[in-house]
Amino acid sequence: MPQPGPRTADLLALLGREFGADLLIDAAALSARSRDESGLVRQPAAVLLARSETQVARLVTLANAHDFAVIPRGAGTGLAGGCLPQAGNGPSGVVLDLTAMNRIIDIDTQSLTARVEPGVLTGDLRSAARAVGLFYPPDPASLATSTIGGNAATNAGGPACVKYGTTRDYVLGLRAVLPTGEAIRAGVNTRKGVVGYDLTRLLVGSEGTLGVITELTLKLLPHPKAAACLAAVFADLNAAMRAIISVMTRGHLPSAMEFLDARCLRLVGDLLPFAVAGDESALVLMETDGDPDQVGREVAEIEAICRELGATDILPAATSGTEAGDAGREAVWKVRRSVSTRIHEACAVYIPEDIAVPIGRIADMIAALPGVEARHGITIFAFGHAGDGNIHLNLTAQDESLRPRVEAAAEDCVRLALALGGTISGEHGIGLVKRGLLPLEIEPVSLRVQRGIKVLLDPQNVLNPGKIFPPDGDSDGPPDGDSDGPEENG
Ligand SMILES: Cc1cc2nc3c(=O)[nH]c(=O)nc-3n(C[C@H](O)[C@H](O)[C@H](O)COP(=O)(O)OP(=O)(O)OC[C@H]3O[C@@H](n4cnc5c(N)ncnc54)[C@H](O)[C@@H]3O)c2cc1C
């Protein structure tokens, strides 16, 4: 690691006096916070392991006084480089690690709300709510390792989004330290609230650029009494999509509707209890939850729809509540959860895209993929949340020299999604990784307004600078290519 210059050394001395042992500058601590799951590596100059909102506010106030960057960080499971310093050449900025602020302050079983600190792991909150008969629905696949603060900052979602929505739909209110160092309370403790501008919704999804979330008040639901999961194989992806749309248009709203294309299915087919015939076969997983009788009826109707629309194999519903049923559900979900790991293991170059398109255009998006593969000579694995149009496109190649082609193909996919009325990211956010692509989706006037909001809240640009917006000097018009080159990848 390069030695800190005199200014950095002075700053570290100042922060050390201020925060004592909570300021971490040892190599292991810095290295642990120099990466997330994006593949980028950016070393901070120091880490503050914050234990209170007061410390957070003090750090941000000092950042304004002494002109250094503060980068909020949860568990570092992000896929967009959002919790990393922006500079690529030497240590910079102070990473504000919020994982030690991890208390579940209160679960109110009468008001059906939870008050939590940002470092609580999402899975821990779900378990704590479950223990008192309540349900926190957002279910990013990373829920065992990611924090509620990170989920709120990225508006994380998962399979349950089709029925229950994303993190945003459960944040009633929050406390945050603004980029000026002032602490605020935004939102409400109630189910409704329409007073003033909705600063809660502005902060949720702002990727740590407009405020540091220090506490959240979350909406909980009664826990569904039962859930049942069904897996169906179709001759091809188009048939699978037709079944998914029919299930919804015939009045069902499953709590998950996932799909795997033929390539994904070949990678994880060994986890299914039957052999999948046919080279083009696609898998659909559907889950329904609620009252046991209703779940039983609904899953039977969904199974009938799948048969009517040509399912070649159906793994009958596994219903929660018994040991066999729980094990059956787990076995089905394991198939889905294993896909990205197996793609990662099987391919030398792997870029995960998480575009989303309107549900009715999923088939068009999928139909365009062979053209992208042929144009760039790469391979695409597609799976994801069919119920909400969020498709995980995993663009791959078997040789590192082909990375530029994979990147060009990724931009092609993004442009295709936009042409179909979609968005460039359904879940992972923009961070550093996609900031060059932002002008493809956000028109110039809207981009100017968004930059204006950042300047209003963060006049000195100290909070997570360089994220979301294209780098200074880049035009706000559509890019020729992403300016963040692979040479910055770790
Ligand atoms: C295996 C795997 C599966 C995943 N599956 C999903 C999925 O299904 N759905 C999905 O949406 N994402 C998924 N992700 C991405 C990632 O888990 C989410 O983006 C998650 O919300 C990040 O939480 P984190 O605590 O790790 O935040 P970090 O990665 O530490 O930070 C993410 C962003 O949030 C900001 N931030 C963190 N905490 C705060 C805070 N308290 N206040 C203000 N800003 C803050 C950071 O500055 C950064 O911009 C997955 C990632 C992996 C590795």
What does this entry look like structurally?
The chain is α+β, with helices and mostly antiparallel strands and 490 residues long. The chain has four domains: 6-97, Uridine Diphospho-n-acetylenolpyruvylglucosamine Reductase, domain 2, CATH 3.30.43.10; 104-222, Uridine Diphospho-n-acetylenolpyruvylglucosamine Reductase, domain 3 (2-Layer Sandwich); 226-341, Alpha-Beta Plaits (2-Layer Sandwich); 342-488, Alpha-Beta Plaits. Helices cover 35% and strands 20% of the residues. The chain is built from 16 helices and 18 strands. It has helices at residues 6-19, 27-32, 53-66, 122-131, 148-154, 161-164, 199-203, 237-249, 262-268, 292-308, 323-337, 339-346, 362-376, 403-419, 438-441, 444-457, and strands spanning 23-24, 46-49, 70-73, 94-97, 104-108, 113-116, 134-135, 171-177, 183-187, 212-219, 221-222, 226-234, 256-260, 282-290, 313-319, 349-353, 379-385, 390-397. The strands form four sheets. The protein has a seven-stranded antiparallel sheet with strand order 15-12-14-13-17-18-16, with helices on both faces. It is globular, with a radius of gyration of 23 Å. The two termini are 15 Å apart. The structure holds flavin-adenine dinucleotide (FAD).
Strand content: 15-25%
Taking the sheet with the most strands, its summary is: 7 strands, antiparallel
Alpha plus pi helix count: 16
Widest β-sheet, arrangement of strands:
15-12-14-13-17-18-16
The poorly predicted ranges are: 478-490
